[in-house]
Write a structure and sequence with these properties.
The complex is a heterodimer of chains A (96) and B (200).
Chain A: H1 13-35, H2 44-61, H3 69-94
Chain B: H1 9-40, H2 42-50, H3 54-79, H4 83-113, H5 121-124, H6 128-163, H7 173-198
Classes of the chains: A mainly alpha (96), B mainly alpha (200).
Chain lengths: 96, 200
């Protein structure tokens, strides 16, 4: 087997535990924020926290931090496609 | 290395990621539908979201986050050659996934009990925005629940492979790709939870 193929990064149990604690804390914050009246920020705040949580899962649990750059680059494609779809749709409905 | 078979780990993982992208776009389309209808019926969505059980939603969030942790730990344990630990973490992941589905069963059951299910006579008496909210709720959490069920089945197969040492220290790509799928299902719930249960 090619030497390069056998190289991989073993993530410490401790790192995963820390990420999990982070995710639980963020969940707590988002529930607390949901029960408060944040006015105009009441939709944006939970969505930003969700993005942060998704980032933690992608970066650590899904190993994006430890993989080659190509994985982060290809992830941009669905993100860009979704952004275009969402952008065009809202552009459409806001000018009807 | 006694096993001379050629393996392309990077290729296998990129293939899995490409599949996950199609999943992201599948759910992305539904999220887009949700956003547009929410914009058109803000008051109805506000009223309907308040009727969902935040405690059950929060419990399911904790269950899925924790199952993602045990999934990741199981892969690390396999890479370190700790078969027993890996098996234990995998069993925990499967149990947590099942707990999520049981929770979902009770949540949907309570809604059905109140006469709220797709096309129910009760639901059709509601305002248009509320009907749309519940339609999206059942389709999106239903699709997600289906993914959890598929994930549990895949992980059960992986459990057998780990126990038979077909997945081990030098060959764990199947487990890693199954883990990627499981984490993706977790990420979708991370967005579903605030959209349906928190933002009112």
């Amino acid at each position: 087997m090619d030497q390069k193929e056998t190289q991989y990064h073993i993530v410490n149990y401790g790192t995963y535990m820390l990420v999990w604690i982070g995710l639980v804390i963020l969940t707590g914050i988002t529930i607390t924020a949901g029960s408060m009246n944040l006015g105009g920020l009441s939709i944006l705040t939970p969505l930003l926290i969700a993005l942060l949580k998704a980032g933690l899962v992608l970066y650590f649990f899904m190993h994006l931090k430890y993989e080659e750059d190509i994985f982060q680059i290809i992830l941009l494609f669905p993100v860009i496609i979704l952004t275009i779809f969402i952008g065009l749709t809202f552009f459409d409905i806001s000018f009807r | 290395m006694s096993d001379e078979r050629h393996r392309d780990y990077a290729g296998a993982k990129i293939g899995m990621w490409l599949f996950l992208f199609t999943e992201i776009l599948l759910f992305g389309g539904m999220f887009l539908l949700y956003s547009v209808y929410r914009l058109k019926h803000p008051q109805d969505f506000h009223n309907a979201a308040g009727e969902l059980n935040t405690i059950i939603g929060a419990l399911n969030t904790l269950i899925l986050i924790t199952s993602s942790l045990t999934m990741a730990l199981s892969i690390s344990a396999t890479q370190k050659g700790h078969k027993k630990l890996s098996t234990l973490f995998l069993v925990l992941t499967i149990l947590l996934g099942t707990a999520f589905l049981v929770d979902k069963y009770f949540e949907w059951g309570a809604k059905f009990h109140h006469g709220i299910y797709p096309n129910s006579p009760e639901l059709l008496t509601y305002t248009k925005g509320k009907v749309l909210f519940y339609g999206l709720y059942f389709v999106m959490t239903g699709f997600h629940g289906l993914h959890v069920l598929i994930g549990v089945l895949i992980l059960s197969v992986m459990l057998v492979l780990v126990m038979k040492t077909k997945i081990h220290k030098t060959d764990f790509i199947k487990l890693e790709n199954s883990g990627l799928y499981w984490h993706m299902v977790d990420i979708i719930w991370i967005f579903l939870f605030p959209l349906f249960y928190l933002i009112t």
